[in-house]
Amino acid sequence: MFRRSHGSGHDKALNQLFDKYKEERKDVIGIAGTEQLCADLEVDPSDVRVLAFAWRLGASKMCHFTRDQWAALRDFGVKSVADMKRALPKIMDEAIADFKSYYEFTYTFGLDVDRGERTLPAETAIALWRLVFSDPRKQSVHLDSWLAFLEEKKVKGISKDTWDLYLVFTETIDKDCTNYDAMEAWPSLLDEYVEHLKGGESQ
């Protein structure tokens, strides 16, 4: 498990780096600051490394970093943008090594908390599933067929339970689902997915 830095005694250079991106009237990095940060790091805001970066800092929502969260970069000796660039691969390595934490974080991170969302809209969930499994070291054999099923079924939302258990499903269930036991406590949406797959194979 990674170490978490605290807000007291921030390194001066790291503090100044935060000030470069923070909002003028609030002590947080918001949308504009995040976009500028991504530009300086030469990564697209939709890049999986940005998701891993947010996880490592413990961000509570998209495009929102507090000064205390920013302090986690001290673990990588960050004092400049160049240091951050060098830290990104290490952060990605940590995310893959602690994938369950990173994966479960992604659901909460994707919620629009300002609008009071408690269930992830299917469109957002599909985009995040593609992103979180985009690293070649951690892929899902079911991903393409699962996402196609969700789109065909026109699912409106994905619950946290379904999101979390999909990881268990994709790590334990064979691509042909022959070892799937419907008597186990799987979400109904996964039951329907397996029935859909087997129904397609029998036609």
Provide a quick synopsis of the model.
The protein is mainly α and 203 residues long. It has 10 helices and 4 strands.
Describe the structure.
The termini are far apart. The strands form two sheets. The chain has a two-stranded antiparallel ribbon with strand order 1-2. A two-stranded antiparallel ribbon has the order 3-4. The protein has helices spanning 12-21, 31-41, 48-57, 67-70, 81-97, 99-110, 122-132, 143-153, 160-172, 188-202; strands at 28-29, 65-66, 120-121, 157-158. The protein has 203 residues and is mainly alpha-helical. The chain has two domains: 12-97, Recoverin, domain 1; 100-202, Cullin, PONY binding domain (Recoverin, domain 1, Orthogonal Bundle). It is elongated.
- Please write the string of helix (H) and strand (E) elements: HEHHEHHHEHHEHH
Derived from helix and strand composition plus strand pairing, the structural class reads mainly alpha
Unreliable segments of 5+ consecutive residues:
1-10
User: Within the largest sheet, what's the order of strands?
Assistant: 1-2
Helical fraction:
55-70%
Rounded to an integer in angstroms, the radius of gyration calculated over CA atoms is 19 Å
Q: Give the number of helices.
A: 10
- Give a short account of the largest sheet: 2 strands, antiparallel
The name of the CATH superfamily of the largest domain reads Cullin, PONY binding domain
Q: Indicate the CATH topology of the largest domain.
A: Recoverin, domain 1
Number of domains: 2
Average pLDDT value? Answer: 93
CATH class of the largest domain: Mainly Alpha
Identify the CATH architecture of the largest domain.
Orthogonal Bundle
- How many strand elements? 4
Distance between the termini: 47 Å
